[in-house]
C-alpha cells in the first residue's frame, strides 16, 4: 500500500476544498476511485477513511460517501492561544461581532469565579465568533474593571482580548476549564444558526495571570455540528 493512500487523501481533500466535490455531493465509489488512481481498493478505503475521521466525508448506507461540512478541530481545550490564531492556523478565516460590551455589577457566579467583592463591577463582553462567515461560537466574558481601567476603549471586533491583556502586562498563564453539553435554546439557536434543541459544547473557563489572579471568566457555547475538541493526556504514574 505504501504511502499512496496519503497522496490520494491529499488529492481528494484538494478536490473537496476547491469545490470540485461540493458539500452534499456523492464522491465516486471505491471501484471508480481505484480506477481513477490506478491503485487497489484497500488503498482507496484507507484514504477515504482518513477523510471520514477528519469530518470531510461521511459514509451513508444505500447512498455512498458524501461530502459534509467538516468539523473544526479545536486545540482550545489544551492550548492557550487566541481564537483568531487557532482558526487561521487551520487555513480558515475568523471574524467577530460584538453583541454586548458594558460595565455592570458582578453577579454571584461571576464574583466567585473572579474572587470579587460584592460591590465590584465587571466588563461584560458578548461576542459571536465566525469561521468562514458561519457563526461558530457564542462567548460571554467577564473581566474585573479594577484591573483594566481602559478596556472599554478597545474595539473587540478588531482586537484580541488576550492580546489586550498582553499589552497591559497581564498575560493569561493558566486556565481552568469545565466542559458540559447543553441543548440550544431559542436565542442561541438563532445566533448560531442551528435548530432549537441542537447540542452545544458548553465551556466555563477561568483565566489566571502569573500571580494566579483571576482576570477572566468566560462562558463559550460552540456549535456541536461544526466542532470537535482535542485533549492530550499524559501518564506520569508508573506501575511496576
From TrEMBL:
Coiled coil (residue ranges): none
Database matches in Pfam families: GntR, UTRA
SUPFAM superfamilies in UniProt: Chorismate lyase-like, Winged helix' DNA-binding domain
Top-level taxon in the UniProt lineage: Bacteria
HTH gntR-type domain location: 2-70
Keywords: DNA-binding, Transcription, Transcription regulation
Protein's name according to its UniProt entry: GntR family transcriptional regulator
Taxon lineage: Bacteria, Bacillati, Bacillota, Clostridia, Lachnospirales
Amino acid at each position: 500500500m505504501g504511502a499512496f493512500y496519503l497522496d490520494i487523501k491529499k488529492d481528494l481533500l484538494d478536490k473537496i476544498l476547491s469545490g470540485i466535490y461540493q458539500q452534499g455531493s456523492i464522491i465516486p465509489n471505491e471501484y471508480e476511485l481505484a480506477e481513477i488512481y490506478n491503485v487497489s481498493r484497500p488503498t482507496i478505503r484507507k484514504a477515504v477513511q482518513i477523510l471520514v475521521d477528519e469530518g470531510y466525508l461521511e459514509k451513508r448506507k444505500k447512498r455512498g460517501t458524501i461530502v459534509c461540512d467538516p468539523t473544526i478541530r479545536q486545540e482550545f481545550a489544551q492550548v492557550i492561544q487566541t481564537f483568531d490564531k487557532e482558526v487561521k492556523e487551520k487555513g480558515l478565516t475568523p471574524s467577530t461581532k460584538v453583541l454586548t460590551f458594558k460595565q455592570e455589577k458582578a453577579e454571584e457566579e461571576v464574583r466567585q469565579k473572579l474572587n470579587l467583592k460584592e460591590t465590584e463591577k465587571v466588563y461584560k463582553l458578548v461576542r459571536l465568533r465566525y469561521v468562514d462567515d458561519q457563526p461558530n461560537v457564542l462567548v460571554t466574558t467577564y473581566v474585573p474593571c479594577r484591573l483594566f481601567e481602559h478596556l472599554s476603549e478597545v474595539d473587540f471586533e478588531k482586537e484580541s482580548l488576550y492580546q489586550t491583556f498582553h499589552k497591559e502586562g497581564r498575560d493569561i498563564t493558566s486556565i481552568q476549564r469545565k466542559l458540559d453539553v447543553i441543548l440550544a435554546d431559542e436565542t442561541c439557536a438563532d445566533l448560531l444558526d442551528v435548530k432549537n434543541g441542537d447540542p452545544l459544547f458548553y465551556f466555563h473557563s477561568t483565566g489566571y495571570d502569573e500571580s494566579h489572579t483571576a482576570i477572566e471568566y468566560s462562558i463559550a457555547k460552540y456549535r456541536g455540528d461544526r466542532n470537535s475538541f482535542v485533549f492530550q493526556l499524559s501518564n506520569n504514574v508508573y506501575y511496576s
